[in-house]
Structures are given as structure tokens and as C-alpha cells.
Specification:
Elements: E1 2-4, H1 14-18, E2 33-34, E3 40-43, E4 48-51, H2 58-64, E5 74-78, E6 85-89, E7 96-100, E8 107-109, E9 120-122, E10 129-133, E11 142-146, E12 153-155, E13 163-168, E14 175-179, E15 188-192, E16 201-204, E17 211-217, E18 223-231, E19 234-241, E20 246-251, E21 260-265, E22 271-276, E23 284-289, E24 295-297, E25 305-311, E26 318-324, E27 327-333, E28 340-342, E29 350-356, E30 362-369, E31 372-380, E32 385-387, E33 405-410, E34 416-422, E35 430-436, H3 450-459, E36 462-466, H4 476-479, H5 487-502, E37 507-517, H6 519-531, E38 537-541, H7 547-553, H8 556-566, H9 572-581, E39 594-599, H10 607-619, E40 624-629, H11 639-656
């Protein structure tokens, strides 16, 4: 059983609703094809449209080449016999599924698609698996049944709806999954025999605009553990009786708000594990005994969020990680006695992909550190760690990579805001790139980033990644500080960061740029509105330019989820507030060169958000570059597009940030 903070059942469901876009790297530009507009040209067989972006010098492609040829490997599952593993990695343009049969062994590619493969769920006691895949980044993922031994596969979903969060029953006879199949809007739960997909049945018609998904099957085979996500601070756990259709609320209530994420049933069927902030400002690991109703808070003495959990097939072993200042700490857990033991000696970094092998004596981990990309490790019962994959890093000497320093700066109201600061090894004062994460219910964590290291080494720029108010990882109070009418308080945190930069002798407060994606893109635009006089460049990636048009045009299956965070635009008072703070209505205040990056098929932040801010800037004769990928969605997943985006970003910074 593989379970993360929002559980494996939510793998391509909720994760796709909230995640920030990828800001990975790139290789070199192809020859431009002229179009009717002299300022517009296309690349990559017409799929990448560049508007007002100068030709990218060949030297930049050569300069960035090594940084743009970094790979990673993420754990997906064990084979049925536990002797090999399935991973996802990229050898072509997008990530595909591979099999690795021994530590450091050959990566045998199993899928060969033009689109990246999404979630993967293996049938119990079989190598048959279900994977998900969308088209052109539209996030309307379809489900496919794959025999990895023969390579045969076929679609089992309807080809139109959005599907994910696949959970196999313990006997492998059926799956529960999330789908918008009923009306294209509601996040319902369905049950299917994958051998008879035409007989899929609606198990739960979602009663409102929240996200509903299956998490685990009860040992009785007739009951599902279900999550209902309304917002990051309002998550409920239900139990669904598939025979009677009866839905029972287990955790959470309509009065008050707390986050309860189901993790899975204990194998004796007498309770379930879950994470909750009912009893703390942080998300704690807990177990509820369904016979007595008693809740046991397992991590009551750990004041950090629990963010990963795994339970072995036989129910005798469990493991979890906590997020401590953005870094992961791994613990083992006895599921019956609840004894907790910290695992020492792991690389300092971010851990994910926790999964026990079928025998329960090996624990798979995906480990990422500031100096190494994600790779797969196996931890045995004696806590001896063995590395199974060795991803290429483009010939770079990662020993020379800069590790970040964690700092805190005081904002306008005295709030202490954490930020990770990367500084070049050369003498300053250095120009500064402020990188703002999306979400907003996300968190910058010090992952391996060849992008950051490229900016440090090739541009000589320092990079600062703040976790402004509204970020996850610092408790439920902190994550709620930017909601509704407090939206611009997070923008003021950027103003306070600019103040802090001015106090640092090795940072150049006169040469500062901002970059961010999704909600981070809004933060970039808002920072340009309020702090243009203190900025030299701004890069908005799939960003929100107007909250009202965004909420009106974002896909219907996620609209209510976003209203819970940003406010309901149908309320006149809130609508007036959202219009007042929207950057598209304040273009007159923007006086900094802007680079806008978008994917045509983005279901979260529609292309119209980019088009309207670009048009408004052009109408006011403001300098703006615009890049739109016609075969991408919420961020660029195809390497050929990421390559040119990264090269253009370097050129943009060279022209607008670096000059003294």
C-alpha cells in the first residue's frame, strides 16, 4: 500500500487540482518559422508560439546544455514477486514507465507514448497495472490496463471524462476510482471490474463541488474509506457501504474546520490510520479504533506535519515521514503497538514514494537532495539503505552545487516568514531572483534543482524561495493567513522580503527579479503592480491575472475548490474585492519588463488569463514577451518546450536583470 499525505488514492485526482507547474530545464532552439506577424514565430513543429521574444543566441543553448540534460527516477511500485521495481524516468521527451531488476541495473522501458504517463496502480499479486495519461496537458486523464510483460494495453475509461485515484480491491477483482463521467463536473466515485469496463457503476454521486476520492478498501471487500476535500483546512473522512450505498461521516464536521486525510484501514479491520489537525496546529498521524471510537494520536510529540505513510501488505509494518522545515525525517511504526522509531542515517533531503515490498521486508523510498535528483533506494529491515537507480546529471559535478540557507524575515505585521536562500560562491553583491511557489497551499522545499544551480553558476544570481503566508508546512493557522479578503497580505510578504534584501551587503537590491507559476504567477503580477520601482524583471508562468475571470473559466470540476481559497466571485462584496486586487485591472501600475509563459490546454489557469494580461500590457506599450505552447497545459512537461522556455528565461534575465 502506497499512501502519501493525500494518499495514493488521490494520485492523479487532487494532486492535479492543486500542484504548481513544472519549472524544469531545456536544451536548444530549432530554426524559427516566420509567421504573418513579424514579432511572432513558431518552434517545435508549430507547437510553441513566441511573441516579441528575440532570437535566442546559440551560445545560450550550448551554455545550458548540461543543466538541461538532468534526469530523475521516481519509484512507482514493486513487481508482484518483489524482485524488481517499476519507476518513471525520461529518456526521450517525456517520462515513461521503466522496470529495474537489480540495484544499479538496466532501466527497461515499458511504455512509449508521446505524453507522460501519470498515476500507476498494480493489481495485487499480479504485474498487471492501471496507468493514467492525458492529452496535451489537458488533465482529462484516461485509465489504461497494461500487461507489462507483453506490453499490451487498452483504455478502460470512457475517453472523455477526467479519471484517476485508482485503488484495487484486495482480491484484485475490481477497482474504485474518481471520475467526472456522470456530468463532466462532479468528482464522483465509481467502481469497475477492469475486465468489464463497460459495466462500471457509479458508487457515490458527489453531493457538492468538493473533491471526493477512494483511499482504501476495507478487508470485508464491501466498504470504502473515502476522502472529501473542500479546502486545505477542511477535509473530511467518510466510509461508503457499497452494498447499501450508505455514506457515514467518520472525521470532520460541518461546524468548524479541520483537515483529516485518510490513509488506510488496519489489516484487522478494526480501525483506520489518518492524519489530522484536530488536536494540533500541525497535521498529526492518528489511529481510530472503530470498535471503541478511541483516537490514538501517534505523533503528538512531533510538532511538524506528517506527509507520507505506508503500510505493508500483511499489516505488520508501517512507515511515515514528517516535514521538518521542508526536509524529511523517516520513522518506522508498529501498527499494533504504535511504537515509533526514528530511522537515522538517511541522506538529508525530501523523501517520497514510501512503499513496502510484498514480503514486507523492504521499504522503497524516492529520495531527493539539494545535490542529487530524485532516485530510488530500498531500506531493509535492519535499516540498511541501498541505492537502486543512478540518474544522469548531464556531466555536472553536483558536489559544486550550492545548498540553501534557511532564513526568516519579518513581514509588515511582525509575522516571521521562512525562505530558502541560495548564494553564488563568487563575491557579491549579487543580482537576486525571487522564486515564488504556486498553490497557494504548497511549500517550497529544497529539492534538487538544476534550474536554480544554472542561475547561480551561469547568471551569478542569488535565488530566494520564500514560503509566504498561505504556504503549507507551518501549521493550519499559517496556511489560512491569506484567505479571502487577506489575499494581498501575501504580496506584502514579498515587499518585506525586498526590504530584507536591502539589508544584505552581498545582495544587490537594485537588481531583483521575480518568477513564479500558477498562484505564484499571480504573485509575480501583483508584485509588479506594487513594487515595479524595486524590480528589474518579472516572469509569470501560467499565472492568474484576474480572479473573477479565472474563477469563471477554470474547469468546472475544480471551481468550488478554488472558491474556498480565493473567495466566491458570485458574492458582490467579494467580487468587488477580487476585481480590485486583480493585476489585469492595474496594468497602469506595472512598470517592469514582463515575460508571460502559458500552455494552451491549461484546465486550471486558462490561456485567457495570459492572453488578457499580455493584451493589456501591449495596449499600454509595456514591454512583454509571450510564450504559448499549444501542446501543453499547466506547465511544460515536454522537454523540447521546457528547453526553449529555459533558454528564453536566461535571455530575459540577461537583458533585464544582469546589467548594472
Amino acid at each position: 500500500m502506497v499512501i502519501s499525505r493525500v494518499s495514493s488514492a488521490m494520485l492523479l485526482g487532487l494532486g492535479c487540482l492543486l500542484a504548481a507547474p513544472t519549472q524544469a530545464l531545456a536544451v536548444q532552439e530549432t530554426m524559427a518559422t516566420p509567421t504573418v506577424d513579424a514579432d511572432v514565430r513558431t518552434l517545435n513543429n508549430g507547437n510553441l508560439v513566441l511573441d516579441n521574444i528575440p532570437p535566442i543566441p546559440a551560445r545560450i543553448g550550448e551554455q545550458l546544455n548540461r543543466f538541461q540534460n538532468v534526469r530523475s527516477a521516481s519509484f512507482r511500485n514493486f513487481t508482484a514477486d518483489g524482485d524488481a521495481i517499476y519507476i518513471s524516468t525520461r529518456f526521450g521527451d517525456v517520462a515513461q514507465i521503466h522496470k529495474v531488476s537489480e540495484a544499479g541495473g538496466y532501466r527497461q522501458q515499458l511504455t512509449f507514448f508521446d505524453e507522460p504517463v501519470g498515476g500507476l496502480a498494480r493489481k495485487p499479486e499480479s504485474n498487471t497495472m492501471i496507468f493514467s495519461m492525458d492529452a496535451g496537458g489537458n488533465e482529462f486523464s484516461q485509465l489504461f490496463l497494461l500487461d507489462p510483460d507483453s506490453g499490451d494495453y487498452h483504455m478502460i475509461s470512457d475517453g472523455e471524462s477526467r479519471n484517476g485515484a485508482v485503488v484495487w480491491s484486495q482480491d484484485g477483482a475490481k477497482i474504485a476510482y474518481q471520475s467526472t463521467r456522470r456530468d463532466g463536473r462532479s468528482n464522483d466515485i465509481w467502481v469497475m471490474d477492469p475486465q468489464q469496463p463497460e459495466q462500471a457503476q457509479l458508487a457515490l454521486a458527489a453531493p457538492d463541488g468538493s473533491w471526493w476520492g477512494p483511499v482504501d478498501w476495507h478487508p470485508d471487500g464491501d466498504t470504502l474509506l473515502v476522502v472529501q476535500y473542500t479546502s486545505i483546512t477542511d477535509v473530511k473522512i467518510h466510509q461508503l457501504d457499497l452494498q447499501e450505498g450508505e455514506l457515514t461521516l467518520l472525521e470532520g464536521s460541518d461546524v468548524g474546520s479541520n483537515a483529516n486525510f485518510p490513509l488506510g484501514y488496519r489489516k484487522d479491520g478494526k480501525g483506520y490510520f489518518f492524519t489530522t489537525d484536530q488536536f494540533s496546529d500541525f497535521t498529526q498521524l492518528a489511529f481510530r479504533n472503530t470498535d471503541t471510537g478511541e483516537v490514538r494520536v501517534i505523533t503528538k510529540d512531533i510538532n511538524w506535519n506528517v506527509d507520507n505513510f505506508a503500510l505493508s501488505d500483511d499489516g505488520k509494518q508501517a512507515a511515515f515521514t514528517i516535514n521538518e522545515e521542508g526536509m524529511s525525517q523517516l520513522y518506522r511504526l508498529d501498527p499494533m503497538s504504535f511504537k515509533v522509531t526514528r530511522v537515522k542515517g538517511l541522506p538529508i533531503g525530501v523523501v517520497g514514494g514510501l512503499t513496502f515490498n510484498p514480503a514486507g521486508d523492504q521499504l522503497a523510498l524516492s529520495i531527493n537532495t539539494p545535490k542529487s535528483p530524485t532516485d530510488v533506494y530500498l531500506l531493509d529491515s535492519e535499516n540498511s539503505l541501498k541505492r537502486w537507480t543512478f540518474s544522469e546529471v548531464g556531466g555536472l559535478n553536483t558536489d559544486n552545487f550550492v545548498e540553501p540557507e534557511l532564513v526568516r524575515f519579518s513581514s509588515f505585521d511582525g509575522l516571521e516568514v521562512p525562505a530558502f536562500v541560495y548564494k553564488p560562491k563568487s563575491e557579491g553583491p549579487h543580482p537576486v531572483i525571487i522564486s515564488i511557489h504556486g498553490g497557494p497551499e504548497s511549500q517550497y522545499r529544497p529539492y534538487f534543482s538544476s534550474t536554480v544551480q544554472l542561475w547561480l553558476q551561469e547568471l551569478g544570481a542569488a535565488v530566494i524561495a520564500p514560503n509566504v503566508r498561505g504556504s503549507a508546512g507551518y501549521g493550519k493557522e499559517y496556511v489560512s493567513l491569506d484567505n479571502g479578503f487577506n489575499r494581498e497580505d501575501s504580496v506584502k510578504d514579498i515587499g518585506a522580503l525586498l526590504d530584507w534584501i536591502a539589508t544584505q551587503p552581498d545582495l544587490d537590491a537594485d537588481r531583483v527579479a521575480v518568477i513564479g507559476g500558477s498562484y505564484g504567477g499571480y504573485m509575480v503580477l501583483a508584485s509588479a503592480v506594487h513594487y515595479s520601482d524595486r524590480l528589474q524583471a518579472a516572469v509569470d508562468i501560467v499565472g492568474i491575472s484576474n480572479f473573477v475571470t479565472f474563477l469563471t473559466n477554470t474547469e468546472s470540476y475544480r471551481r468550488d475548490l478554488r472558491r474556498a481559497e480565493y473567495g466566491d466571485e458570485r458574492d458582490p462584496e467579494m467580487r468587488a474585492h477580487l476585481e480590485a486586487i486583480s493585476p489585469s485591472n492595474q496594468v497602469d501600475k506595472i512598470d517592469v519588463p514582463m515575460f508571460v509563459v502559458q500552455g494552451e490546454n491549461d484546465p486550471r489557469v486558462p490561456v485567457t488569463e495570459a492572453e488578457q494580461i499580455v493584451a493589456a500590457l501591449k495596449a499600454k506599450n509595456k514591454p512583454v514577451w509571450y510564450m504559448n505552447a499549444l501542446n501543453e497545459g499547466h506547465g511544460y512537461r515536454k522537454k523540447e518546450n521546457r528547453d526553449i522556455y529555459e533558454q528564453a528565461t536566461v535571455l530575459f534575465f540577461e537583458q533585464h536583470l544582469l546589467p548594472e
